[in-house]
Amino acid sequence: MKTLCGIKELPKKPTRPVITIGGFDGVHRGHQAVINETVNWAREMQGESIVLTFAAHPRNVLSGSAPSFITSLEHRLLLFQRLDVSLAIILDFGEVSEMSAEHFVKGIISESLGAKGWVMGPNFAFGKDRKGDFTLASALSKKYGFEIRSCPAVKHGDETISSTLVKESILQGDLEKAKSMLGRSVTLMGTVVEGSGRGARLGFPTANLDLHHEIRPPNGVYASIVKLDGRDFLSLTSIGTRPTFEAEEAEEVVEVYIIDFDQSLYGKDLEVGFLFKLRDEIRFKSADALRAQMDKDKKEVQRRLGKKTLTRQDPPPIMRT
């Protein structure tokens, strides 16, 4: 999958492009239905599937609130790639939000992209003041020479799957409900940054993650899988404030211990999938007591999941340059 930052980066018009547009935070099952329809339709036309997404979520831009994502931009791009999207174009929402609906269709969809098809999710709106919808896009499609399709909402029980619902489930620690709506385990992706080195001194070297505003499950220790270079590694992921060593007001951190792994990971982007919660965060009386508990945690994960890593066909994590 190719990625471009803005329409102006296009070297030429794509070949018979079929497009979809959205924030796609979480790339949940509802989003996947829209993207899969886009990919399959493009294949039928022997053209290119294009996802237009935003560097910042439209809700954050409109409200002026601090960013908070299920999936950061880098994480979304990785998930788009796994869905076989041909091209992802990252738009500046602040710029396109001021365009009228017809100006957006004429300038972006028709003239710049030459779209032959447009797949729209339920309740999607576009253009200044969100005045563009499926009805208007259908009318404009005849004027500008493309077809349009709408995907129905995807349900989880009686509820329509949405990024808001997924986010609530993750924050509440309901990993099974979130997994059902996502169509995969709850995952985090973050860049490995330098930590205190305390884990290595305990015999359990951990990778400290900068999550780039991704939300995370409640504090605690989790059994997890780290995807690295096409392989899945068993791991323990700790979310919390390290109460054994830090003051109560310490900043929350995410640390990942990859079982039986000793390579340097600094600067890499790791994707961590949560399997189940092992225990709550605990303040231990000593470093030795913490070390003993971590050894128990490791053995429990190995007992329940096995000691070997599993080879997979997933692409390796994105390397940040």
Characterise this structure.
The protein is of the alpha/beta class. It is built from 10 helices and 15 strands. The strands form 3 sheets. Strands 1-4-3-2-5-6 form a 6-stranded parallel sheet, with helices on both faces. Strand 2, helix 1 (29-44) and strand 3 (49-54) form a beta-alpha-beta unit.
Order of helices and strands: EEHEHHEHHEHEEEHHEHEEEEEHE
The first-level CATH class of the largest domain is given as Mainly Beta
CATH architecture of the largest domain: Beta Barrel
Secondary structure: helix percent: 25-40%
The CATH homologous superfamily name of the largest domain equals Riboflavin kinase-like
Number of strands: 15
Name the descriptors:
31% helix, six-stranded antiparallel beta barrel, 25% strand, 2 domains, Elongation Factor Tu (Ef-tu), domain 3, six-stranded parallel β-sheet, Rossmann fold, disordered C terminus, single chain, alpha/beta, 321 residues, 10 helices, elongated
SSE blueprint:
Blueprint: E1 2-5, E2 18-21, H1 29-44, E3 49-54, H2 58-63, H3 73-82, E4 87-91, H4 93-96, H5 101-112, E5 117-120, H6 134-144, E6 147-150, E7 155-156, E8 159-160, H7 163-171, H8 175-182, E9 187-193, H9 198-201, E10 207-210, E11 220-228, E12 231-240, E13 253-258, E14 269-279, H10 287-305, E15 310-311
Parallel strand pairs: 1-4, 2-3, 2-5, 3-4, 5-6
Antiparallel strand pairs: 7-8, 9-10, 9-14, 10-13, 11-12, 11-14, 12-13, 12-15
